[in-house]
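A reminder from the course coordinator: this example appears on the midterm review sheet, so study it carefully.

Given structure:
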């Protein structure tokens, strides 16, 4: 039996939103620098493909920094600046980046204050889409697998899904 508590997420190749925000003051300290920020809670970005084991799981960042789908995703507002898709945490952004691969799927990673991918199309209530570049075609299909790694090992269960901002479908 495959357990889908948290899993690796990859991109299958081929704007700020209006929120009911509750600002909360927060001070985070790194070295001798103090960062003051206002935390704005936003809607989760969830897997929406009906009939799959990942439906309702939210886009997240694991403790090791991997791109995952998990029961609980980001708690803060996602930024869509400059065609990016990033979560603000502890005074820094974690940007969702698309890597390179000879396979039909491309690995995803979180770039710590490093926005490499500027071709995301996303916003409140929208399907997350990677717009075409010279390396891949426009796609909104993600490949979710039950274990991490740069390549999908034989025998590993994977499902194709789409991600939507601002939804929380019943599981």
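Designed residues:
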């Amino acid at each position: 039996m495959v357990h889908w508590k948290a899993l690796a997420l990859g991109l299958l190749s081929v704007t700020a939103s209006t929120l009911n925000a509750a600002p909360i003051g927060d001070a985070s300290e790194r070295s001798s620098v103090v960062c003051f920020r206002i935390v704005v809670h936003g809607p989760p970005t969830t897997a929406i493909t009906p009939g799959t084991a990942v439906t309702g799981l939210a886009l997240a960042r694991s403790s090791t920094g991997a791109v995952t789908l998990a029961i609980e995703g980001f708690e803060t507002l996602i930024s869509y600046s400059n065609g990016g898709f990033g979560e603000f945490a502890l005074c820094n952004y974690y940007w969702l980046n698309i890597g390179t691969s000879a396979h039909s799927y491309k690995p995803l990673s979180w770039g710590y204050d490093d926005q490499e991918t500027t071709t995301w199309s996303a916003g409140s209530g929208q399907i997350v889409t990677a717009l075409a570049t010279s390396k891949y075609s426009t796609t909104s299909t993600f490949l979710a697998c039950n274990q991490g790694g740069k390549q999908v090992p034989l025998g590993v269960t994977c499902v194709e899904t789409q991600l939507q901002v601002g939804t929380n479908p019943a599981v």
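The two ends are 18 Å apart (CA to CA). The chain is about 0% helix and 40% strand.
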